[in-house]
Amino acid sequence: MDRIIIHVDMDAFYASVETRDNPALRGKPLIIGSLPQERGVVATCSYEARRYGVHSAMNVKEAYRLCPNGIYMHPDFEKYRAVSSQLHEIWNTYATAAEYIALDEAYLDVTRSAGTWERACGFAREIKRRTREELSLTCSVGIAYSKTAAKTASEEKKPDGYFEIPTPADFVKLIIDRDVRVLYTVGAKTAEKLNRAGIRTVRDIQQRQEEVIRSFGKQGQWMVQIAHGIDDRAVSPYNPEDAKSISREITFQEDVDDYRFIRDVLLLLSISVERRAERVGLYGEGVTLKLTYSDMKSITRSRLIPSSRSAAVIYAEADRLLDQVNQKAVRLVGVGVYHLVGEYGRQMRMDDYLPEIQTRRQAEIDTALAALGHRYGLDFAGNLDRIFHGETLYRTIEYMRKHRSGVPPQTSFT
User: Fold this and answer.
1) C-alpha dihedral over 341, 342, 348, 354, to 10 degrees?
2) CA 320 to CA 67: how far, in whole Å?
3) In this structure, is residue 169 part of a structural domain?
4) What is the mean pLDDT of residues 19-35?
5) How confident is residue 355, by pLDDT bands cut at 50, 70 and 90?
6) What was the pLDDT predicted at 111?
7) What's the pLDDT score for residue 162?
8) Radius of gyration (Cα) for the chain, nearest Å?
9) Does residue 105 carry a catalytic annotation?
10) Domain annotation covers residue 136
């Protein structure tokens, strides 16, 4: 049986959730991301805001210039993750395999569960109906013979769209005279290079395929295949161990040259990384420190360790790495673990054999958090779970930045 894939893409997901929960926002240009007076970008925006030229990943100050009367909000990722889980419950009802691209997007393989193209189309329409009726949200759904075609189909009638592409011939017929950017593998720079060679449409790629392959190598081969409707990729469910790293970073609203404060931030980021690693059952065999200076130059420092996800270990290594960098004003700081491994086959630490070491490391974290809370007037012990959800960590660190004064050096870990 030929493969049948559904691509589901929620319509302006964050903005739609906020509008659903607050009807007063309905029909207004809503921009989710940083606030106009802050550093940062647009995460997403309502379709009303898009009419002003606002789009995802745009600098928020540019968005404000285009849409000064818009409503600007920080994202509430805890809320969006909860809604995403509800969406997954609906989607998983129909799929034998699901590949989640983001909180609001997925490829669903319904080949075996549907059995026929007609029944698969029924699944796709059911997904749209249930999303609207059960969650009061809309989605665009495409159904096709391949992942590329399914994604193209879901974008064809946005928002709240539905479109079918049954065969490669149907796909090619749809896109043959469109701009090369219609192929998901073609980004802005690739399109510019193709355009300079006079290749502007999918038909041009087909007619000059040897030249495309010669100029772009493997990427060119892939472009030619897609231009002919060929895409044999399977839907691949996410495996946490496929991730290359787990990290957390923060951009300050004003540059920081107080490295004692940066060490305090490293502690909180290390705890956040520990929690993320615990959720997916992974350990890191390396720790990385990332800094972006006020001149926008970014550096990364790393070192290998016996596998661990302990915040105390992550912080201790990041703290040592911080000693090795030029101490200039910092715009962004990040901490992560890499070379991820699961429980089995990992390199064991002494902690694994001596539980008292684990107890001591946790006590170090608790003591450091208590000291941190005292310095900044914050209750970390009582609000730790809430602090590490969504944007609360960002707001907490910004509060600390604004209220720091005479901060003594952070507790060092062994």
Assistant:
1) 140
2) 45
3) no
4) 95
5) low
6) 96
7) 98
8) 24
9) yes
10) yes
Determine which one of 105, 164, 317, 364 is catalytic: 105
| Domain membership of residue 349 as a residue range | 240-403
Residue 268: closest CA among 321, 319, 303, 331: 319
Nearest of 191, 205, 369 to residue 274 by alpha carbon: 369
pLDDT tens, position by position, 42-62: 999 999 999 999 999 899 999
Instruction: Return phi, psi of residue 112, to 5°.
Output: -80, -40
Q: Is 345 helix (H, G, I), strand (E, B) or coil?
A: coil
In Å, how far are 137, 150, 176, 204, 296 from 153, measured between CA atoms?
19, 5, 14, 22, 39
What pairing do the DSSP bridges indicate for beta strands 30-33 and 71-73? Answer: parallel
The model's pTM is 0.74
CA atoms within 13 A on the CB side of 66: 20
168 lies in a domain? no
Strand order in the sheet with 298-308: 245-256, 330-341, 283-293, 298-308
* CA quadruple 262, 267, 269, 273: dihedral sign: positive
Judge if 289 and 377 occupy the same domain.
Answer: yes
**d(C-alpha 363, C-alpha 123), whole Å:** 52
Model confidence pLDDT, tens digit, residues 58-89: 999 999 999 999 999 999 888 998 999 999 99
Residue 334 scores a pLDDT above 90? yes
DSSP 8-class letter at 179: B
Q: How distant, in Å, are the alpha carbons of 191, 195, 217, 233, 394 from that of 209?
A: 15, 14, 11, 21, 48
